[in-house]
Amino acid sequence: MKGLVYEKKAGKRGEAGTHLVLLAKNKEGYQNLLKLASIAYLEGFYYRPRIDKEVLKQYHQGLIAMSACLEGEIPRLLLTGNLNKAIEVAKWYKELFKDDFYLELQKNDLPEQDKVNEGILEIAEKLRIKCVATADCHYLDKEDALAHEVLLCIQTGHKLSDPDRFRFNTDKLYFASAEEMKERFKNYPLEVITNSMEIFEKIDLEIKTDEILFPKAKIPEGETVESYFIKKAREGLERKLKELKAKGQLAEDEEKYWQRLEYEIDTIIEKGYASYFLIVADFVNWAKSRGIPVGPGRGSAAGALTSYALGITNLDPLRWGLLFERFLNKERPSLPDIDVDFCMERRDEVIEYVANTYGKEYIAKIATFGQLKARQVVRDVGRVLGFKPKEIDPIAKMISPGINVTLEKELQREEFKELIRRSEKIKKLFELAKKLERLPRHVSQHAAGVIIAGKPITEVAPLMKGDEGEILVQFDMKACEAVGLIKFDFLGLKTLTIIDHTLKLVERYEGIKVNIDDIPLDDEKTYELLRKGETDGVFQLESDGMKELLRRLKPTDFNDLIAVLALYRPGPLEGGLVDQYIETKHGKRKPEYLHPLLEPILKETYGVIVYQEQVMEIARAFAGYTLGEADLLRRAIGKKEKELMENLKKEFISRSVERNIPLEIAEKVYDLIEKFADYGFNKSHSAAYALLSYQTAYLKAHYPVYFIAGILTYSANKSEEVSKYIALANEMGIKILPPDINKSEAGFTVEGSAIRIGLYAIKNVGEEAVNEILKKRPYEFFYSIFVVKWILKR
């Protein structure tokens, strides 16, 4: 690690810190390095992360220190002719680090470096400190020097032609080979080269990447994590079965529920994930107990009966044919991943609860590193090279949109080849842009990921502060996983907030307390709205394409709605699956099954493979795969590796034939699942989100005024959204009343069959002003907004 060091706490404002290189010698050193990196960001940050010498003194054990480049403290003193002070500083480092402090010698064609080297050798001899030859590496290869200059210009907002731009006056700041280092230092004692090996041999550190640092669930005294998990899961299922029985909604015999739960419990405990489930259940149920809206489920976790029993999800997986193995199975070595949707406005309360419950030192959000993507890097490099906006914009716009687009691929297109042939300047533009593409551009916060660790995070990863003061791990999601940190996803979903607003309005004005989890899933009025495609404001169903699909498909039950969300994607739409589903549903064609075993699996989707779970069921029915093996097959097919695909096909056909499936049928069935494996969608996710779609459609069908008022309240500070839904209200025959100083509240309210605009929707009227207006009502009279302002100032 190269960092900034100051003489005293935080340094003086504007004072430039000096560089110091620190290497972890062992585990203690690595943990101290993590602590120093965290302190530099959390306590010492001023434009850049930094530490002072007192902090370094506290956490120096197990570290090797090196005097760094020309920006190091000792080189900087030598450049100003202050040899005595440089000796004093070197002595301080020598006393602190003993034989683990080295003076760096560099050769980079800079005259000031030669001057520093002379001083370094003098100090080394006087204080008996070893020297080591190093290269100040800012880029990998010598050929990257110009690209590095361009990057500096991007970072500082300059052009390459600017005479006063920040630059390094050398092209020797690359990773030099051993041979080149020997050549550079041929006039120096050999030990300055061999001392690098001495440093290497001192390092005895292995960073574990196979240890999973599961957080520890809070459990009662006398219980183990496993026993408490089993107890909570069984108690939870017992409650759920009573509820389902009372509603007449048991999908299977109770025995089948219990068998499924015990199977899932065995898998979860065997994989060591009991604590994970208890923690998720804890914060989800805490949120529910505080009236914070929580989604019915998200992703494959909705397929786990255990999630349902613990209250994490609100969807009976047996009723809707959801598979646990799509989420977790013994054959797949992956971590559990339960994503939870919370009300957008109250999500942070849940994260705060987790921090207070499990300890703030165990909790942090995850950093994401924005990269220089294809279009952006071409624009940035173009500006640095002096292209005018009217020159670079058309070139940038030629690049395909999308986050996975690369210049390497784009430049294979003929139009780009022609551009490069015609212009050396454009050729240079793309050469430099390709070198800089995908480099980190900025740090931000992961949208939902929160680490809950099994030990203080600074023991395994460094921390930093985000733009808004939030604590972040300095690693991205993949690096967090590599060091054993577990990610929990706390997502904010505006739909939950809108549903909450709507239900509160209904209760307030109608005196009806609607439990959104108890609404019937066979409501004809709701399906009529869906069949007409009147779905503006309805979750996931607002787009023109989705409305058209609804009008064509004409859903009649909840299974149709699950299928709608799964079918509305490019693969099924372009592959003809949607047409086949619709035509078969409406009796215009008969469902076709290659073999009788397919009928029970594909009957609900009219002979069409819509879900990934159906691919898994087919593999089990024909080839005798366990559902865990079938999930691995599904994932492997998606990788599209030729050799792997051939082996998979052979195995599937062989196992099918052993089960008396005719060879020809086995081949055709495999071809079928191979074809549709890409198209298949996760049914668990589709079912959970279909429930939210249905709930919002139900509210719109039965409580249209309150539903639109709920949407408008959520969207109050988004003028485009407000305009859109006011227009929708007008189309629905709902009158919109203007804001009124005495009648309007913060959000939108209902007056009879009309909606009154809330004060938050008024441009430039913030929360503080709204609170003051509401506090000092009623107002007997006022002449204008200026009088209101005057009243507020009194």
Q: Considering DSSP H and I runs of 4 or more, what fraction of the residues is helical?
A: 40-55%
Distance between the termini: 58 Å
Helical segment count: 35
The largest sheet has its strands arranged as 3-1-2-4-5-6
What best-fitting shape do the alpha-carbon axes yield?
A: globular
As a percent range, the share of strand residues is 5-15%
| Oligomeric assembly | single chain
Number of strands: 15
Going by helix content, strand content and strand pairing, the class is alpha/beta
Mean pLDDT: 92
Rg from C-alpha positions? 32 Å
Regions with little confidence, pLDDT below 50 for 5+ residues: 784-794
Total tally of structural domains: 6
Largest sheet: 6 strands, mixed
Organism: Thermodesulfobacterium geofontis
Enzyme class: transferase
Protein name: DNA polymerase III subunit alpha
EC number: 2.7.7.7
Characterize the structure shown.
The chain has 794 residues and is an alpha/beta fold. It folds into six domains: 164 residues, TIM Barrel (Alpha-Beta Barrel), CATH 3.20.20; 135 residues, no CATH class; 70 residues, no CATH class; 71 residues, Bacterial DNA polymerase III alpha subunit, thumb domain (Arc Repressor Mutant, subunit A), CATH 1.10.10; 177 residues, no CATH class; 91 residues, no CATH class. Helices cover 50% and strands 10% of the residues. The protein contains 35 helices and 15 strands. A six-stranded mixed β-sheet has the order 3-1-2-4-5-6. The longest helix has 23 residues.
